[in-house]
Amino acid sequence: MKEMKEKIGIVDTLEERKPYITRKQEKGQEIPLACDNNSLAGAISQRACVYSGARVVLNPVTDAVHLVHGPIGCAGYTWDIRGAKSSGIETNRTSFSTDMKELDVVFGGEKKLSSAIDELVGLYHPPVVFVYSTCIVGIIGDDLESVCKTASQKHNIPVIPVKSEGFKGNKSDGYKAACDALKRLIKRPSEEDIKKKGPRVPETIKPKINILGDFNVAGDVWLVKPLFEQMGIEVIVSLTGDSTTKAISRAAEADLNLVQCSGSMTYLAKWMQAEYGIPYLNASFFGIEDISLALRRTADYFGSEKMKERAEQILEAEINRIMPEISRVRERVKGKKAAIYMGGPAKALTLIKGFDELGMEVVIIGTQTGKKEDYEQISYSVRDGTVIVDDANPLELAELLIRQKADLMVAGVKERFIAYKLGIAFCDFNHDRVVEFEGFDGFVNFAREVDASISSPVWKAVRQRELIPEAMESEKKSGRIKKVAVEERISRENCAKECKGMLLKPEFLHQKSEAAVESQV
């Protein structure tokens, strides 16, 4: 009984949430973690809705018109949601909405939607229009399928309904809705091309691949594609980073799919395998180990000795080029503790390896959409005692960061201010970053950002917090205090020199009224 309390009593949270937070156990023990369920009511989940999941997958299709059928707030919330870069047309950077009002809810919005499609096609002449359904559309029952079919026939382009009513599931269901929309764009290759596909391609034929689940955030895919091209491989399309309608239509010509974001694209990869006979491999393009593995596994699949030799040459040259800088950063950050909280498990897993390459220890790791097999793999990759959490909320994350004494948090923009308020360094690994993290140069960028975040002199001028063991013990005995007891450590050093001449007054930064509120984590 005592052992069970230790496993589930890691933070002060709702009783129903305790099974979703655990520690890495000794080898051979199954982690007792609940996951892959809908968020609990009242738990303030960090997850996004179905509609948001669909938007993050489809929005990087650069030449498409993305029309949100619903209130203006849904379009505003997801405008330019991916931060994906484009090498050509950028129609996707403009957000469109039918801006449904009260009368549209009462009388239906189909006519308004039809008029909006006509207007946008006339203005932009896009090769495809994606029409997203929102919660209100699902409630009033507008027939998107019928409106889109009529518009498609009228304008002679694909007008594709994305069935993404926010209330009907979670972000993972949005990924599936997006993949169902992409299926309609992928054209079937000729029977002759299908017969040519196989595990081994002759040296005289240039093999083709697709990269699935890379969204070209900050230009990531531009650092990855050249590596495969140097190996003699044609990258048809990255789904969906910097992709066009024409490139997506050719996706079925590929000999192999490389799936980076397993949560968003495994569904599509399995469909392409069943429909067109295209196998897939899971891959990651972050960190030295995972990039090396991706290139080697791809070369092994095609069975070309020349390709294998070229892959080794690329790896040797690139690793030798970046290692001096990686080694310099490693000396500065080794031994520091990192917390990881990602939307999908693939990013979380690859970050574990990346931090290991920098000599850092992962003390917290969590995802929003991980499944049991994902957490088992995560458990194999982290050290004993590491906290593993599914669908965490801000209060849980804040307490975990304090308890585990994290020096750095790597997550998305929603978690940024949790870390900052606790005086903990932060690195954005999600949609809003502006620096590439994939490929060899991307890993150097990541290492530098981690170093800059942890080593910033600003942390000498902000509040640091720790749990007070004595207070925690008295809390258990008395049963009267329910809040987590914390101690604030305020550095009063004069760090003006390191902060480039800006003298910060501790009395001004740490007013008692502010501290009293924020200390109650």
TrEMBL record:
<comment type="function">
    <text>This protein may play a role in the biosynthesis of the prosthetic group of nitrogenase (FeMo cofactor).</text>
</comment>
<dbReference type="InterPro" id="IPR000510">
    <property type="entry name" value="Nase/OxRdtase_comp1"/>
</dbReference>
<comment type="similarity">
    <text>Belongs to the NifD/NifK/NifE/NifN family.</text>
</comment>
<dbReference type="InterPro" id="IPR049939">
    <property type="entry name" value="NifE-like"/>
</dbReference>
<dbReference type="GO" id="GO:0065003">
    <property type="term" value="P:protein-containing complex assembly"/>
</dbReference>
<dbReference type="InterPro" id="IPR000318">
    <property type="entry name" value="Nase_comp1_CS"/>
</dbReference>
<dbReference type="Pfam" id="PF00148">
    <property type="entry name" value="Oxidored_nitro"/>
</dbReference>
<protein>
    <recommendedName>
        <fullName>Nitrogenase iron-molybdenum cofactor biosynthesis protein NifE</fullName>
    </recommendedName>
</protein>
<keyword id="KW-0535">Nitrogen fixation</keyword>
<feature type="domain" description="Nitrogenase/oxidoreductase component 1">
    <location>
        <begin position="49"/>
        <end position="453"/>
    </location>
</feature>
<comment type="pathway">
    <text>Cofactor biosynthesis; Fe-Mo cofactor biosynthesis.</text>
</comment>
<dbReference type="GO" id="GO:0016163">
    <property type="term" value="F:nitrogenase activity"/>
</dbReference>
<dbReference type="InterPro" id="IPR005973">
    <property type="entry name" value="NifE"/>
</dbReference>
